[in-house]
Structure formats: structure tokens, C-alpha cells
Amino acid sequence: MTALTLAAAQSISIAGDLAGNIARHQLFLQVAAEQGVQLLVFPELSLTGYERGLAAQLAVAPDAAVLQPLRDFAKEVGVTAVVGMPIRLTDTSPVLIGAMILGADGSLAVYSKQHLHPGEEVVFAPGAGGEPLTIGVDTIALSVCADFNHADHAALAALKGAGIYAAGVLVTEKGYDPDTALLQGYAAGHSMVVLMANHGGATGGWESAGRSAVWASDGSLIAAASGTGNLMVVARRNPAGWTGEVLAVELE
Questions:
Q1: Residues 205-230: pLDDT tens digits?
Q2: Residue 94 in contact with residue 124, Cβ under 8 Å?
């Protein structure tokens, strides 16, 4: 069993403040690098907050210059990051809920949310998903929030050979128990490690439950945050199996 370190970045987003959120993401990336994290997953729309009313004006192309400093920083510290952002693939295309994969090698890939939550269709169009990413010997499939409410989404990820299913989400207290029951079920049912990165605080008028978590491929819990706040849930695999811990991330 090869070594691997994954983490869920339970970050609190500043509404509509791309520059401020990039700075916060860089702080999370710095902590992740210090912990030897290879893949760091942020919540849904982490770079803007879950701000549907602002999404159209904030949407950018995935390779936009405004995001280059964050891409450069991920490469500098050697951590692959999955960050949330409203995106347009062309100047005239609809707005998508994007999860951009900023590679530790400087590469860029895009996953777009396929299944919209009721009400999101007013602002966003359904996306096309994206190919799994590879870190070492591991294949990681991505999900953005409501995608995982569709059982075939996780089943297809497993069919494509994913051993890890990583979801950036916004989950409230009301939705937390049923949603995490689904994710834990996918872990056990498909023999996949499942990671959930939830917002660390209120965003877009919703009160996030926090409590980001990682489950092992038998459905057992590796680690989970106990509540809200700027936290990092770290899961480490070594020859003896998985271990986890939760770290506070101090923002300057």
C-alpha cells in the first residue's frame, strides 16, 4: 500500500471577494504542504462563496489570469488543489459551477457540476463533469454537491476505476445526516475512499454544517471535523492503513 495524504479544506468564503478568498486558499495550501498533503479539496464555489446572485458577474474562464497566482502557488508548494469557482468556458457560454484542478505540476483541468440543486438553474447550466485525476497510483473522481445525490454518479466513478471519490459541497445541518449517509454508503458499496469538503461557515444565505469528513473504503470514518470553522481534515494512508486528524487553519 503506497503512501498518500488527502485533505478536505473546510474553508470560510468571503462573499464575492475573489482576491480575499485566493489569499485564504493560499494559507490553506501552505498548511497542506507542511502536512505533506498531495490533494487538497475545497468546498463548492469556494473562491466566491455560494453566491448565486453574484455568480454571473464573477464567472471567469478556467485559465483566467486572475487565477494564475493561485495556480502558481499550488505548483510552488507542490499540492494539487481542487477549488470551486463559477466559470464560463467561452465568453458567450452559460455559467457553470466549476471545480478546477490546479495541478502540483502546474497543469489545469476542469470538472463542472452535472446535477443542479433546485433553484440553481436560474443562474447556472448543467455541466459535463470531467475525467478522473491521477495522483501516483491512485485514480480520484470528483463530485460537486448535488452530483452525489445521484447514485449513478458514484457508480460510474467506481466503474472508471476510481478508488477515491472527492466531493466539494455546501451541506446544511438539515441535509447533513442523509447526505453523509449516502457518501458513507458509496464508500462501503463501491470500496472507495470518500472525501467531503464542506463550507466552514455561512455562505449565500445558507448555514453550513461544516463537519467535513473522510471515510475509508469499508465505510468506516477516518476523520471528521466536529463543527464549523476554518479547519483541515487530513487523511493519511501508509502500509498499516489510514489515519486521520483535524487541524485548525489560522488565517492572518
A1: 999 999 999 999 999 999 999 999 99
A2: yes
> 4-248, superfamily in CATH?
Carbon-nitrogen hydrolase (3.60.110.10)
Cell output for 196: 467531503
- Burial (Cβ within 10 Å: 0-12, 13-18, ≥19) of residue 192: buried
CA distance 220 to 179: 16
Half-sphere exposure of 157 (CA within 13 A, CB side): 33
Instruction: Evaluate if pTM is beyond 0.70.
Output: yes
CB-count exposure of residue 75 (10 Å: 0-12, 13-18, 19+): middle
Amino acid at 20: G
Q: Are 162 and 192 in contact (CB under 8 A)?
A: yes
Closest CA to 83 of 14, 168, 196: 168
Longest dimension (CA), the chain: 51
Query: Which residue ranges make up each domain of the chain?
Result: 4-248
